[in-house]
Structures are given as C-alpha cells and as structure tokens.
Design brief:
This protein is an alpha/beta fold and about 500 residues long. It has helices spanning about 5-20, 25-40, 55-70, 90-100, 145-155, 195-200, 200-205, 225-230, 255-270, 280-285, 305-315, 330-345, 355-360, 375-385, 390-405, 440-455, 460-480, 490-500; strands at about 50-55, 75-80, 110-115, 130, 160-165, 185-190, 205-210, 245-250, 270-280, 295, 320, 350, 370-375, 410, 415-420, 425-430.
Length: about 500
C-alpha cells in the first residue's frame, strides 16, 4: 500500500490549491467519500450516526460528511470538541456554516458544543460513531476535552470509523500518544499514512479514498514545498541555531558570484554566511555589502595549501557550497577534490555548483555525504556524458539515473527545472527567460545552500530552492520586464518564504 507522510500530505494540499484544486474541494470530496462508504454498509432509515469533530481540517471532513449523510437519509448528530466560534480553518468553517443552516429543519441535525469535559453527553445513542477529532496533525497526547471524548468513543459498543487516522495515533510512527480511538474502520485519503500500517490494532480495516487530488501534483514544486523548509524561530534562539554556511569560491575574474550566494543564503534565514576566497578577492567582496564575511586564502586561486584553513572552516559550518566563481586552475581542481573528501569525512551537507561541479566531474563518483548538484545543461553533460533530451520525461529519467549513480540530489536548471534524488522526481515551472542573465544560478545556490545549512534534506532544499528562485524572478519580471539583474531577486526571497502562495498573484502572467 502506497504511503505519504503527514508533512508531505499537507505540502501536497497546499500545492493542490496553488495548481487550482482548493482545500474546500478536497474537503467536500472527503466528506462525500465518507458518506458513500457508510451508505454502502448501513441502512439510512435505520442508522443513527454521531460524528465527533475537532476544530481543524479533520473536523471539517466530519462536517462535510454530516451534510452528505443527511442527504442520504441518515439521522446525524455532531459533537464539536470546543466552541463553534473557535473553528479557524476556513474550509471547515464553511462546512460548519452549511450544517448550522440545516438546524432549522425538523429532524435534520443536532450540533453540540463540548468545550468542557463536563458537557459530554452521558448517554450517546448511535449505531455508527465517526472520529473526526484531530487527524494527521497530532504531535502530542490529546488534551481535554478531546482526551475525554476519545475515552467516551471507546466506551461505546458500536461501529467506529476514524477519518484519516484514529485520534491519538501518531500518523508517522503509529505510536499511541496517551489514549487513542480504537476504530473498526479507517477511511484515509489519497494515500495511507505510515502510522496507519503500524497501528492496525487501532485502525481496523483501512480504506484509501480518492478525493480528487491528482497524483501528478506530487511531481510539481509549489508553495507546499516552501512550507516544508520553514522553521519556527523561538524567542530564545541564538546566533548559529539557524545554520552557518561556508561558501568556497571567487577568483581574480569572478568576485561577485560568491557574494550573490552569501546574500541569497542570508535571505533564507541562515544565521551566518562565510566566503572563503583567494586573498585579493576576499578583500573586494565585503565592498559589495557589509553583510559579507570573508576568510582570506593565500594565493591567487584556491590551491592545496589552503586546506588547513578550509578544514577548520568546514568543521565550524553546517553546510558548504563549492564552486561559484572559483575558476578552473589545475591546482584549484586538486584542492576541490581534497575539500570534498574532508566534507565527506565530517558528513557535512554539500552543494556543488559551477566550477566546483566541473572539478568534480573529472572523477564523478558516488558522494558519501548529503549533497546537491546544480548543473545547467552543459554541466549535466560533463556529469552524465549525455546531452539533455528535449523530452521532459526522458530528461527526468536521465536526472534520476545520474542522481542515483552519484548518491546526490541533482537539480538540473532550465526552462523547467528537474530535481531528483535518484528515487523521487519533481519539476519546477517557476522562472522566466529573463533569468538567463548571469548570476541567477548563484542566487539559486545561495537559497539551496542556506536551506541545507538550516538542516533540511538535500531534496527538500533543492525543490524549495528552485521554486523560490524562479518565483523571485517572476516578480522581478513583473516589475522590470526582461531588464533584470541577479540582485533584483534578493528582496523577493523573504517575501516568498513568508507567503509562499503570493506567487499566485502573477502565475500565468
């Protein structure tokens, strides 16, 4: 049975809304599918149903199911775990409003508020109980009054149906968090959640229902992928808690590339971004911005004599970017080879771009540390020995193949970015032809590198980074047309992280 984690499901639902299928539509379909499954098992004229609803999306599924069950002739009561006015989820609120408008009709529906455990009805008459209290968002043991409602459900000697996952079960691990509903049947949506398969004693029979969420949406990068790489910053956070990124790059010819990487990384929320560059270059870089910190390396280009200094810097970093503006000197290639081995020994996340990729392509071996490679078509040919196909499916398979061979996530840049970790594939459609200007690839490396430094997986960082970089370029296009520079993208990066759905305002423009 295919599974999807709760994080992935929430991300997919947000992406679904971005691509045109709203959460309200998904909730409507979930409610209908619950009602259809019940009507296939029970006689409407002889079956009383009580639905226990929470205040979030799971409760919204229960509210939608109640309306469909009433339409099919079932007698329905709804018990809300809290005050009705406390329902904040917009889709759930709309379904609850529809139910409340039915209360004026005789024998239509009864709705009870249980905001205190003392308000739980002593006697609950029902042939079927539906648990729509918490769903997949549960992170700790249920609290009152939900805890008491869970106990009440388990006391009742009747057929119990859980919506998505029984309340009290961790949707990832299957762990019982305090006390959990023991269901006879669990109706879950789109795909099963991993915890269901590990908690069969509580889930009972498991049925997966289609709610109109196209499986192809799982292949598309969107705002949900940005949400996956968004961390809450606690009040007592300290410098370094959100990562230290080391950028190894720059040369006599290219001083701006590593600066762009560092500035973009800082916009993702990483705490510190250091640039290790040849001495003369390192003195120039801070002139671009006072936000830039440099480590000065002896010599006119990266060379093996710099290894001791770099080793110390790598040890103090949480991720490393190698390549922007580095140059292709023979000594530089030797140094890159040694630096990669140090990073592997220390198991630090690594991003290889530009000249770093070209140096690595000479040995192109399996990497033994979490890694992202960001080639354009020419660099991809160096890595794989193959031209990129114009057919998107064939291109994706080629990216997946080389990612598997190199044990890395590969982000192939292009009109449509293709991202694969050798198992999964995603496509990113943000971005525009104005982004062919030099330096936008450095912005991308900074975003992805910043996310790696904050502890996100290479695949998550690459997918989110591709979306954010392209979306920033789309906003600049709207402002300036095809007259953009890479620094124009910088101010849009935090805006997209703060509101990933904001790109909807210009999508298709």
């Amino acid at each position: 049975m295919d599974t999807i984690t709760s994080k992935e499901m929430k991300s997919l639902e947000l992406n679904s809304e971005y691509f045109g299928v709203s959460r309200l539509q998904l909730m409507e379909n979930a409610g209908r599918s619950i009602a259809e499954e019940i009507s296939s098992r029970f006689n409407p004229g002889k079956t009383e149903i009580v639905i226990f609803c929470g205040l979030g999306g799971n409760g919204g599924d229960g509210f939608a199911a109640a309306r469909h069950l009433i339409n099919k002739g079932f007698k329905v009561k709804v018990i809300v775990a809290g005050r009705i006015r406390e329902v904040k989820d917009e889709a759930a609120k709309k379904n609850l409003e529809a139910l409340e408008n039915l209360k004026n009709f005789k024998d239509s529906i009864e709705i009870f508020e249980v905001y205190d455990s003392s308000l739980i009805p002593e006697k609950v008459k029902a042939d079927v109980i539906i648990d729509a209290l918490l769903g997949i968002g549960l992170k700790g043991a249920p609290r009152p009054p939900i805890l008491q409602l869970v106990k009440k459900i388990n006391e009742l000697k009747t057929f119990k149906i859980a919506v998505d996952i029984p309340t009290g079960i961790d949707s990832e691990t299957g762990e019982v968090l305090g006390e959990a509903v023991k269901a006879n049947l669990t109706i879950t949506f789109h795909k099963a959640k991993p915890g269901l398969l590990k908690a069969s004693e509580y889930a009972g029979e498991i049925i997966v229902k289609d709610i109109g969420l196209p499986k192809r949406f799982e292949l598309l990068a969107g705002p949900g992928d940005v949400k996956l790489v968004t961390r809450t910053r606690p009040f007592n956070a300290h410098k370094g808690d959100f990562g230290r990124l080391l950028i190894i790059g720059g040369s006599e010819t290219y001083t701006g590339a590593p600066a762009l990487v560092a500035l973009a990384a800082l916009r993702t929320g990483v705490d510190l971004a250091y640039i290790a560059a040849p001495e003369k270059t390192a003195y120039i870089i801070p002139s671009y911005s006072p936000n830039l910190i440099t480590i000065k390396l002896k010599g006119i280009h990266l060379n093996p004599e710099n290894i001791p200094v770099l080793r110390k810097a790598i040890q103090q970093s949480t991720a490393i970017v190698i390549g922007p503006g580095l140059g292709l000197d023979a000594e530089t290639a030797l140094a890159v080879k040694e630096v990669i081995r140090i990073i592997e020994d220390l198991e630090k996340p690594l991003l290889l771009d530009a000249d770093g990729l070209k140096a690595f392509a000479k040995e192109k071996r399996k990497l033994n540390t979490p890694a992202v490679l960001t080639p354009h078509a020419g660099e991809f040919k160096l890595l794989s020995g193959k031209e990129t196909s114009k057919n998107l499916s064939e291109k994706a398979e080629a990216v997946k193949e080389i990612a598997s061979q190199l044990n890395a996530t590969v982000l192939l840049k292009g009109p449509v970015d293709v991202i694969s970790n050798g198992k999964r594939i995603k496509f990113n459609f943000t971005g525009n032809p104005g982004m062919t200007v030099g330096g936008t690839g450095d912005i991308l490396s900074g975003i992805v590198g910043g996310l790696l430094a904050q502890g996100f997986s290479p695949f998550e960082a690459a997918v989110a980074g591709a979306f954010v970089n392209g979306a920033a370029g789309d906003f600049v296009l709207k402002e300036k047309g095809y007259h953009m520079t890479p620094t124009d993208l910088l101010n849009w990066i935090p805006k997209i992280f703060n509101d990933p759905m904001c790109h909807l305002r210009i999508k298709g423009a």
